[in-house]
Amino acid sequence: MNTYRRLSIVVMIVFITLLIFTGCGGAEYVEDEMSYKTASSGNLRMASAESIAAPGSEPIQNLLLEDNRKKILTATIELEVPDLNETENAVKSLVADFSGWIDNSSLYENYLSITIRVPAESLDAFLQMTGELGEVQSRSISADDVTDYYFDTETRLETLRILQERYTEYLKTAENMEDIISIERELNNVISEIESMERTIRRLDGQISYSTVYFYGELPPEEQVSGELPSIVEGLKKLVYGFITLIYYIGLGLLYAVIFGVPIILVLGLIYLVGWGRIGLVRKFFKLLSRKKTGNRKSDG
Questions:
Q1: Which of 60, 122, 226, 259 has its CA at a distance of 20 to 30 angstroms from the CA of residue 273?
Q2: Strand runs labelled E in 127-209
Q3: Closest of 126, 98, 106 to residue 218, by C-alpha
Q4: 148: Cβ–Cβ under 8 A, 6 or more apart, which residues?
């Protein structure tokens, strides 16, 4: 009876494992990248995007308010503004009024760049009010339709939760250590898949609920700051400074040559004098050695 029960548990584990891989293996879950793939479609459906490239154009088409669809909206707006600091403060005030937040803001000499998150249902109104801060140069909005991926992930998540409950029940009735280890391993795999899918759902909910807006503000061409012309006096000062620096390093090099070069030359001269010069110890040694070899040859002969 125990053998039959153990065998039935093993068969059930294998069946559930196959069910997990066949049911959940068709989708890829990417946490950090905007990549959505499903087993049925393979590719995302991109909603139509309207781009407005001139000021005074018609309002942006609403891509969000569609029943039973899940969309991630992204907008870009470029303005020509009279003052960058005032524009930055005005954008921050608008973001606060729309209950959004700023991901990052960069202020440069001639332009301003801000990445903004605002509620998706207020995106159109936010863009319209932002466009009043200056002269609109370009404006665009696009939507990624993730409806199929979103609901497919929810379905797989529910399936995994059911499997988690079953594994938990099997674990309570397991009678030997081998079955317990096997069931716990499969249960941990299911829990890991559940946590991954829950993170995916939370990430999608955040991206769907809050749209991303890339705001760029630029000064008019006539007000952009350009580099100042170089001063003649400053140029002469730099020239004189460079000449003095060159003389300094030349003098410093000669000083080093005297301090370190003269002793080295003296030491080398002394070595030559003792070894090969007037004293010639090395020269005399080799001459003596040569005489001994010559005398040995004569004695041998």
A1: 259
A2: 135-145
A3: 106
A4: 38, 40, 41, 45
**Do 147 and 288 fall within a single domain?**
no
> How many other CB atoms are there within 10 angstroms of residue 10's CB atom?
14
Across the range 170-192, mean pLDDT stands at 89
3-state secondary structure of 89: helix
List CB contacts of 189: < 8 A, sequence separation 6 or more. Answer: 20
- Residue 111: domain span: 1-227
Q: What is the pLDDT of residues 251-291, one digit of tens each?
A: 888 888 888 888 888 888 778 777 776 676 777 777 777 77
**Measured at the alpha carbon of residue 68, what is the angle toward residues 131 and 97, in degrees to the nearest 5?**
30
53 and 106 within one domain: yes
Exposure class string for 176-214: b at 16+ Cβ within 10 A, else e:
eeebeebbeebbebbeebbebbeebeeebeebbebbbbe
Q: Which residues are CB-contacts of 28 (< 8 A; sequence separation ≥ 6)?
A: 35, 37
Clarify whether residues 217 and 163 are in a common domain.
yes
Site of tokens 């600091």: 85
Query: What is the C-alpha separation between 297 and 115, in angstroms, rounded?
Result: 99
Q: Which residue has the tokens 């040694």?
A: 285
Question: pTM for the complete prediction?
Answer: 0.55
Amino acid at 10: V
> What tokens appear for 47 in the block?
């909603």
């973001």: which residue's tokens? 95
